[in-house]
Amino acid sequence: IAMAQKIVYSPKEEMDLMGEIWSPAIADNPLAFVMLAFPWQKKGTPLENHTGPRKWQHDFLVDIAGHIAKNKGRVDFEMLRAAVASGRGIGKSALVAWITLWYLSTRIGAATIISANGEAQLRTITWPELGKWAAMSINSHWFETSATNIRPAAWLANLVERDLKIS
Fold first, then answer.
1. Which of 13, 20, 102, 162 has its CA 20 to 30 A from that of 119?
2. What is the pLDDT of residue 6?
3. Kindly report the CA angle at 126 between 18 and 26, in degrees rounded to 5?
4. pLDDT in tens, 108-126
5. How far is the C-alpha of 77 from the C-alpha of 79, rounded, in Å?
6. pLDDT tens digit string along 51-70?
7. How far apart, in whole angstroms, are the C-alpha atoms of residue 64 and residue 131?
8. Is-contact 11 160, C-beta < 8 A?
9. Cα(82)–Cα(54) distance, integer angstroms
10. Which residues partner with 151 through β-bridges?
11. Which residues contact 115 (CB under 8 A, 6 or more apart)?
12. By the 8 A CB rule, do 112 and 100 touch?
């Protein structure tokens, strides 16, 4: 069941947050988004004993930023192709969640499609991980999540459509 979200900051704080998240420094750098968006080392959170992503996740996010910089302004841009081969529990689903939330947060009107080896994996591993990270995000109130969907909160969709003329 999706929960309706409301603005949680003052209008000025919300505008400042939008300005920061939508700035090129964050929009073109998923690592910067991950470091801003989540409560790393904040007492009382699941991340209180973590300073940030694992080294391989950090490097992967840096590679995405490098790819964006390399393709900036190009019409004939190159697609990013990357893969992670590993065992269980190293943080692949967390990385997918971060990239998804970064993309949805920094590209107004964006859509992403997430797939997995099977529906069971998607429902029991990938989607719960995305929900966990979405709930911890500094801009969690921008989204409404359900069992298999994350979409802009009604207030944000209305604001973007009204003020930015983007549907």
1. 102
2. 64
3. 25
4. 888 888 888 888 888 878 8
5. 7
6. 999 998 999 999 999 999 98
7. 22
8. no
9. 17
10. 144
11. 122
12. yes
